[in-house]
Write a structure and sequence with these properties.
The complex is a heterodimer. Chain A is mainly alpha-helical. Chain A has helices at 2-5, 10-33, 36-40, 57-76, 80-95, 101-114, 118-138, 145-156, 170-190, 192-209, 214-225. The radius of gyration of chain A is 18 Å and the shape is globular. Chain B has two helices and four strands, in the order αββαββ. The chains are: A mainly alpha, B alpha+beta.
Chain lengths: 237, 107
Amino acid sequence: MRALTRPVSPDALEWAHRLLGVALAALALQQAMGGHLGVHAGALYGRRPAFLPLLPPLAAGALWLAQILAGGAVALGLRRRWTVPAAAALALAGLSQAYFNQGMFLFLTLTALALESVAAARAQLLLLYIASAAFKLRDGFWTGDSLEALLVQVSERGLGPILTLEPAWAPALSKAALLGELALPALLLLTPAAGVAAAAALHLGFALALPGLWPFTATALAAALLFLPRKFPKMAP
Amino acid sequence: MPDRARLTRGGAAAALVAAQAAWFAAGFVFPALPGWTMFAKVEPARARLVDATGLAVEVYDLIPKDVYLVDRAGARAIASWQCRTRPEGAPWKLVWPDDVAEDACAR
C-alpha cells in the first residue's frame, strides 16, 4: 500500500502528463485517419455501445479535433487543472462512439490524474496487468495460437507493422509477453526504475508489431512513470 | 485544496479503482463483456461476405484499420450489420476460408 501512495517524482509526473496528452491526440488522429469516418457515414462497422447514438461525420470530426486540442494542451502543460479533466471527459465521449480497451485505459488514467490521485493511476495499471495476465492464463495465450492469429491478420490485411514478426515465433513471444505481464506489477512496486524499463520494452514491442497500439503504449508508459518516487524531500525555494 | 474537496476527490479516485476491479471480475465471469482481455484469445476470423449476385467483400474491409477482428463471433456481428444496412444485397452468405458458408443474416 505504501508503494502506491509514496510521493511521485515531479519529473515523472510531468512526463506522464505529456505522454497522456500525446496518447489522446494520437488516438483521435488514428481514428480520423484509420477509417472511423466511414463508421460515422454508415459505410463501416464500428464497435460501440449500441444504446448510444452514433454521431454524424461532422460531429465526429469535431470530437476528434477537440481531443487533439485537449491532448495537445495537456502535453504542453497549459492550464492542466482544467485541461486534464477536459481531456478525460473527451476520452469518455470518444468511448461512446468507438469502444477500445486502450481508450478506456486512457480515460481511467486521465481521470485519476484529474482527481489528483497518482495512487489511483498506479493501482489501475497494476489491475490492468493482473487482469490481462489472468485472462491470458485462462484462455491459454501461452500456446501462441492467439498471437499467431493476430500476426497472420496483420499480414493478411496489409496493416504494415514497423516490426514484422514471424507467426512461427508466436509461442515463444506469447510466453515472454505473459511472463512480462506477470512480473511487471512486482517490478513496478519493488524496483520502479526496472519496472519502467521493462514496461517500456514490453509495450514498445507490442506497438512496433501491432499497428494501432501507440496510444495504449503511451498511456501505459505514462502510468508506469508514475511509479518513480520522489528521491529527495522537496526543498523550499 | 480544502480538506473536504481533497477527501471527495480521494473518494472518487478510490471508487474509480474499485469500479475497474469490479469490471475486471465481471469480465472474467461473463466472457461476453469487453473486459481487459488484451488479445488473450484471438482466433482466425477471416471471411468473405457474398451477396445475391455473387459479389464478395472481405469482412476485414468493413472495419477501420485500427480495429482487430479477434473471433468468428466478431465476423458474424459484422455480417449481421451488413445484412441490416445493405438489405438490397440479400441473401448474404458468410464464407470462411475453407469454403464453408453460412447464412450471414441468421443472427
